[in-house]
Amino acid sequence: MSALRIISDSGEPFGDRTQAGDLLAGELEEFKGQKPVVLGVPRGGVIIARQVAERLQGDLDVVLAHKLGAPGNPELAIGAVCENGELFVDERIASYVGADDDYIEQEKNLQLQQIERRVQRYRQVLPRLSLEGRVVIVTDDGVATGATMQAALWAVRRENPATLVAALPVGPQDTMPKLSEHADETVCLRAPPVFSAIGQFYSQFAQVQDDELLKILNQENIRRTGA
Question: Could you tell me the sign of the dihedral formed by the alpha carbons of 60, 12, 16, 195, in that order?
């Protein structure tokens, strides 16, 4: 049974991702002491995930999953592919939009090509964690359609976490109930009634560069290994 908790319908902007991550961590205190794995969707979501992982004394990692877009409508997710090539397809949606096996295989290969560059760079710095039996919190700096987060949740679910949590600073009111169906618990700090873009809810929303992300991952690897 999935649970959705929306803290506010305010449209007040966060100062930056770091502040949003700290506020989000405050709503996830129940998981402190359970050593959760906090997965950020690159790149902005990793800033949020870092703050949450630090506050909850958990492990930080990235989730490298891409959605499979529907024919003629790439924003509609029909499935997801993980960094290891594992595939999840929502057969009901795929059938409805006419995505046959050939289309799904083609879309899977296309998305894997896009994932590969990130896998090569990120996993050289921070090895992938096993998620089986862990409390896993998946986060990003916000969602609009929710398709990318949905794909991440599908991918993580295949690894059999004990509890799967979706945690977000901001998302549209109509997106959050649908997204919550794919997690055990969903927490959203702000779901304003008027929503045009994630960036409108941050005073500072600069693009996160790969160098900054790699620095965060390297710091996490040092923390894990002590080397």
Answer: positive
Q: 3-64+130-225: which CATH number, 3.10.180.10, 3.40.50.2020, 3.40.50.880, 1.10.274.10?
A: 3.40.50.2020
Question: 43 preceded by cis ω (within 30°)?
Answer: yes
CATH of domain 68-122: 3.30.1310.20
The H or E element containing residue 33 is none
DSSP letter assigned to residue 41: P
| pLDDT band, residue 1 (cuts 50/70/90) | low
- 42 C-beta neighbours (distance < 10 Å), count: 17
pLDDT digits (tens, 9 = 90+) for 65-89: 888 999 999 988 999 898 888 888 9
* DSSP H/E element including 111: helix 101-125
What b/e readout covers 107-137, taking b as 16+ CB neighbours within 10 angstroms?
bbeebbeebeebeeebeeebeebebeebbbb
Distance CA 49, CA 32 (A): 14
